[in-house]
Amino acid sequence: MCGIVGYVGDRSALPVLLEGLKSLEYRGYDSAGIAMPARNGAPGLEVVRRAGRVDELVAAAQARELAATAANGQHAGIGHTRWATCGEPSEGNAHPHRDCTGNLAIVHNGIIENHLQLRQQLVAAGHTFSSATDSEVVAHLVEERLTAGADLLEAVRTAVGALHGSFAIVAIDARYPGVIVGARVDAPLVLGLGEGECFFASDVAPLLRYTRQVVWLADGEIAQLSRAGARIIGLDGAEHVPTSTEVAWDREAAEKAGFPDFMLKEIYEQPRTLRDTLRSRAEPSGELTLTELAISPAELAEVNKIFIVACGSSYHAGLVAKYAFERWARIPVEIDVASEFRYRDPVLDAKTLVVGISQSGETADTLAAIRYARTQGARTIVITNVVGSSLSREADAVLYTHAGPEIGVAATKTLSTQIAALWLLGLWFAEGTGAMEREAAAEVIRELWRCPELMEAFLDGPEGPAAIAGIAERFATAPGWLFIGRGVGFPLALEGALKLKEISYLHAEGFAAGEMKHGPIALIDKGTPVVAIATHSRVLGKLISNVEEARARGASVVAIAQQGDERVLEVAADVVAVPETAELLSPMLDLLPLQLLAYHVAKLRGCDPDRPRNLAKSVTVE
Length: 622
Ligand code: AGP
Prior knowledge:
This protein is α/β, with parallel strands linked by helices. Helix content is about 35%, strand content about 25%. The model has no long low-confidence stretch (mean pLDDT about 95).
């Protein structure tokens, strides 16, 4: 969703802001803008905004000769990429938004729920609005307080007190040179601390080229940044001592490393990121220690039901885990799309464990679901990739996936590492409750440690990726795709379809293969591509029957299967062979051809796989 950057220090602010916005592009956006104090100490602010890509903003800044102003005193500024929620995507609705004086500008990520009421009050008080956004009320609210004599920090603090909703805000005022102020309530905002310079950003990506020392603002904190450092206060005005941490991610990890796109790089990183997720938790010999969960075996034994809540690909990770949890730990697992969870009155109590999964750790619905679970007295565990993210701070315990920064909007390595983290959780549960013998769990862990090598064998071997590229070429113009699977292959069918539709804009649906006869089979026409997840499982025979039914109606069947599996070869026109592993672990291998297929089809169709239209990396509104 929206991205925020802010800078104050000795550098020229413009390149810091523009580079920062570029590194936030992956969050998804439709317009961008910056604000800095006017050149050479002139009054007011210089604001540049454009609908479209950051490149257009860069060109507009160059046209105004802003790039040549390094010595012109523009050493502070704020920038924003907007993903429209309230008001169409346009230059007029792009951030930063100014107050009536033109001295103050703000950027905002999130939703101001009471903006209509505030707008009415502000208009009645004589303010003039120039956009259709909810965000602009913030500029006028801060303006009111500055006019009444507050300084910028105090004005932002009290303005935040009048807002309902979820938001991160950063403000700059030409009358307060060398200072920027930001606030966080339920939307991400991180501070970067450098030598004689400070930064605001929506996540760490824009900070990595300057500093790794960061402070994760807590909800209700307001920070004033200057060359001298950060001053943080609470909503009540009390001083808070900033606690900085060092982020482990480096800049290189956030760059393409020779791959044409981040998505492809991230697909190929998966063997390594899987190892990183396993390392220090599961030994290749089979030992398992999840000390970060901080739940004793006695407490564990009390849990009688698990709920999994997540959205999109994270939801698919949860579905994969459900099969494993129930088979290994013999405990009932319910899984919910997070946006539905709290509105259906789920029955929760102290014996319920709710597991929230989110790569970003900021998904509004998943966050709300975990909060709701806590109000009902349930235990909560979060699986996320982002240290310090909102979700990581809401749960009783966190399992980090250690996948490194994922820049492509489509989840790839964050998904496979979520699945791995969930499997560890399931095995730990199964062992801790005695549902699974130590040696049986150790056997699974040893097999899981083989997976990175098997993944490398597929990705580095020429046949699999080449076969996928050829299939993509033949079907890139097919108007509709079906993905089918049974058992643990069913969530993979959903994921294969989601990946294809989100980055290639083709219509694709995933089904449990047994459901085909109940309706979807009517969609099959001559040549309709049907991708079947046909790796070894207890239901492979039944899946093959479903594939035959599809083929009999003209489908072009592409099967993901084990090398040389005669039964599959007989029914599928194309077979993509993946290495064999244990049935419940097979999603780790089956994911790879599905991800590559979506990637190649998107490229052939001229779509940008890293920045699909209409989508955001971090969905911070409901
Ligand atoms: C995945 O490719 C999608 N971009 C999307 O479905 C994503 O998984 C979903 O928005 C959930 O995000 P989260 O993991 O950050 O909560």
